[in-house]
Fold this protein.
Amino acid sequence: MKKLEVNKDMCISCGTCFSIDTEHFAEDDDGLSEVISQENLDTELVKNVVDSCPTRAISLNECCCGECNCGDNK
Ligand code: SF4
């Protein structure tokens, strides 16, 4: 099970991810990106968004728990 994450310490609020992919990303109250869905991660769009982040703040890795899609387990 893959997990999409944003490291908010690295996000510079450029808006690229939540402009390109509104299914998975949204702007939080601080103007930073947040992940809003862990569904449909195996797409070219998601890969492109991960690669488009100027600070490499977005990661798409195997979920450590390997059993759920809650998006919160580490
Ligand atoms: S593309 Fe990267 S730096 Fe820009 S808003 Fe998204 S996470 Fe933040």
